[in-house]
Amino acid sequence: MSKELWTLKNKKAVVTGSTRGIGQAVAEEFLKLGAEVMIVSRSQDDVDSEIERYKKGGYDVHGVKCDVTIGEDREKLIHKTEELWGKLDILVNNAGTNTRKKTLDNSEDDYDKIMNLNSKSVFELCKTVHPLLKKSNDASIVNIVSVAGYTSVGTGSPYAISKAGMIHFTQYLSVEWAEDGIRVNAVAPWYIKTSLTEPVLKNKEYLEKILLRTPMKRVGEPVEVAAAVAFLSMPAASYISGECISVDGGFLKYGFGL
Length: 258
Known about the structure:
Structural class: alpha/beta
Number of helices: 8
Distance between the termini: 45 Å
Number of strands: 7
Helix content: 40-55%
């Protein structure tokens, strides 16, 4: 292989839910590695704020207000991407939500909201963006899933269903779209320090339970998830497709423990 392996230089990337938490960390890591990034959020103010922040640092960044659960918004995102770049090298499906409720406490509306954002929007966005990814000839999709897609984390069964489905969808697309030059992988975090997990992690008793089940005895950082996403998007990972990397401090492998 003659091309540079450990870089995202000149890559064009769309990252959904990229104005906070893991999505924000992914966008920032991509920019540092030389990619041109499209910031995506439901809030125009958040998009504008992120663009201003990154441009002060000299990064090549763009943005669009988009609710990925709405078909018209997805079309608007794709239209802007095509107009700007004519193709797409990387799609990171990060936008998602959870209820952290027991199964009997989840309403039908809760279930529909979670599945529409975590599952249906990913399915539809991948289909919509496929022509632009195919033009790349060296494209990558990375789906942000969760360890909840593999095992029980106590609450949020609709969330777990959606993430388990995304893992299997990742495997399916990796086979179907290989002939189009599109690799498809996933990253499954455990507890990561973000604004969404902050209220949960403030509960000392619950935090102790998390750490007890995590061999590395700490909560992860957003940049640690972003690094895995960046790797899967690089030429260095050019023969990796259909895989899911757990960024979990060893949580899934712990078993009974001692």
